Amino acid sequence: MRMPPPVAPSGDPDERNYKSPKFSLGTLTTITIYHDYLCPWCWAGWIHAVRLKQEFGVTFDWRGAELIPPGMAYEPGPPTPVDPNAPPKPPSRFDLFLQSEGIELPTPRPSFVRTHSALLGAEYARTQGPEMADAYHEAIYRAYWERREDIADLAVLARLGAGIGLDPDALRASIVSEEFDEMILPYDDDAYANGIRHVPSFIFNGEELVAEAPYSTLAAATERFLVRAAKFKKE
What we know:
Strands 3-2-1-4-5 form a 5-stranded mixed β-sheet. The longest helix is centred in the last third of the chain and has 20 residues, at 215-234. The protein is an alpha/beta fold. It has helices at 40-56, 93-101, 116-126, 130-146, 154-163, 168-176, 189-193, 215-234; strands at residues 31-35, 61-66, 185-186, 201-204, 208-211.
C-alpha cells in the first residue's frame, strides 16, 4: 500500500526511492512531474511547466518515469515507407492536442535514445537546487528535441551540465556510479503499481494527478494547489 503524502519534503532520500516503504509520489506542498525526455507528450508537458512557472511562480519536483528502463529490450521499427498516392492520415489525438495548445513539435523527430543517464543526471542537478534542476531539464529537452543531440552520451550530458553551471566531472561521476538509480521509477510495472500510467503526470499536493492535459486544466489545478499548499504551510 502506498504511503500517504508527507506535508513537505523531509530530505529523506527514501521518500524518492521507489523501492522504499517510505516512497511517496509527492508531498502536500509540492507539484511533482513524472516524465521522460524520450516522450513527445513530455516535450509539450515541459513547455506547459515553463508557462506555469512564469504565470504562477511555482517550482517543480521533477522525477523520472523511464519508459525504456535498463534491461528492457527495445528497438524502434523501420521507418514507414512514404506512399505519395496514399490519402492523408487523419490527425492523431496527439496531433489534435498540439494544434489546440499551439505547440509545435520539432521536426524531424529525433532518433530513439535511452534516457537512463540523462535522468540520473537530472537527479544530481536536483541536489544543486530547484532552479538548477529546471535549467537542467530545459537544457536536455532542448538538446534532444530541438537539436537532436544524443542525450545518452556522457560527453554530451557533461557539456550541457557545464553550460548551466554544473560541475561536469561531478555530474559525470554521479551518472557513472548510478548514485540515484532507485529514484527513477521504471515503466511499466513499478510505475503502474504507483499510479503513474502516463507521462507526463503532474501530481498536485501529492494527491491530485493530471496527465497529458491541456494548459487550462493544469492552470486550474495549480490554482487549487496554491490554496491547499498555503493552508498546509500555515498548519
